[in-house]
Amino acid sequence: MSDNRNKVLKSGIWYTVSSIAIRAVAIITTPIYTSMLTTGDYGRANIFNSWIELFNIITCLCVVYSIGRAKLDYKDRFDEYMSSLQGLSSLFAFCVLIFVFVFREQISGMIKYEVPLVITMFVYLTVYPSVQYMQEKCRFEYRYRENIAIALITCIGTVVFSISLMYVFNNERYIGKIYGTILPAFIMGIVFYIVILKKGRVFFKWEYWKYALKIGLPMIPHALALVVLAQVDRIMIKDMCSDGDAGLYTYGYGIATLLAIFTNAIGQAWLPWFNEQLDKDNRGRVREMQKKLVLLGCFLSLGFIAVAPEALMILAPRAKDYWVAKWVIPPVALGTLAQYFYTNYVNVELFHKKTPIIAVSSVLAAGVNYILNYLMIPRYGYIAAAYTTLASYIFLMLFHYVAVNFVIRDRVYSNSFMFTAMAVCSAAGISMSLFYGDDISKTVIRYVIALIVLGIFAVVRRKDIAMLAGYIKERLSRGV
């Protein structure tokens, strides 16, 4: 196995393991939070996090998207670039903080949170991006252990601080939950801000700022469009159907996106290697590896859909009313697969620094999602939103395909292979959902089909499976 492939495989395995561990902590601690918080307080705490996610897109100027390409363009000055990048986003975030402080009452009324929490949010946003920058820096330097450590410390720290501070703010526990969520990342943000600045020793350099803004600013509408794609469904279901339907959809959607643990881990491991190979014009190697990753994504998606009803029952053994949400899982899981596929094209666009194209494609997909929801939800109910989500992400994949192949004119992937895989996997996944009934015979048939698919995959990709098994065995024998 080459050193480059070894890096991809090694980081992919460890990103997956850490992602599973972090999600396991989240699942285990959710009952603790729900027992300590009223439904209203739980909602207020989580919506506050949504506001942070939204405002962070604006205050950090989305310059984080420039890091992967900058690692190639500023090989010998990468630390300088990172330091200057941090200076740019923190200075802009500080200007926003001053604006927010002046108009704190109006903004408090707009987002419906107390003034101290509003100020806390924007103070947090001045340093939090440094955590993201350090994670991206570690990612593109293949320092996966440090990256995983950051994620685990943040996760565990959030649990410890949240539970502790909910007791401190006993009468307003949602405030304790909010502070507990942001405090670990805030502390780490300060530490990483100092580390990055000390290593790079550059706060302002117009060359770096111009480079970062050229890539980052067009990504703001892209990031906002992705938030719309992720959130607008449940809002429209709430308005067009009922709170109960919105709850069922949200629960099923949350289960379905557990698949992203694996696809995101693969993507994190793949991107640094992809950028290096494209920079060396090794498109043949990229195409060869990407085909294997496409098949792996299809295999994981179909396996996930096969076991989804039973997984849902295990995760909510006493909440039988939620089990009907299983019908949401197949199309949303396939939508996650389409996300996994379309990011291949986004990676090419980022490599060529054509971020305006990314923004246009994402905004168009968000528009498609809204129109389809408006037409389908009133007729077919909340389950229709799961299928509009799948359709929107397939459209997004198609938009990015057109952009890369006909605007940028870079033929990196085997496009027919990827689209055929998406079509076959979608047909198989939806067909498998026909055996989601309560009848035990349907469950048996579903698992028989899944085992047949598994067997075919194992025979066809036996060399890749043997390579992966050999690598894992080697690492375990070394105790790593």
**Main sheet makeup:** none
**Poorly predicted sequence stretches spanning 5 or more consecutive residues:** none
Query: How helical, in percent, are the residues?
Result: over 70%
Number of helices, counting only DSSP H or I runs of 4 residues or more: 20
Q: Based on DSSP secondary structure assignment, what is the total number of beta strands?
A: 0
- Which range does the strand content fall in? under 5%
> What radius of gyration results from the CA coordinates?
23 Å
The tally of structural domains comes to 2
Shape: globular
| Multimerization status | single chain
Q: How would you state the average pLDDT, rounded?
A: 85
Class from secondary-structure proportions: mainly alpha
List the secondary-structure elements in sequence, H or E: HHHHHHHHHHHHHHHHHHHH
N-to-C span: 18 Å
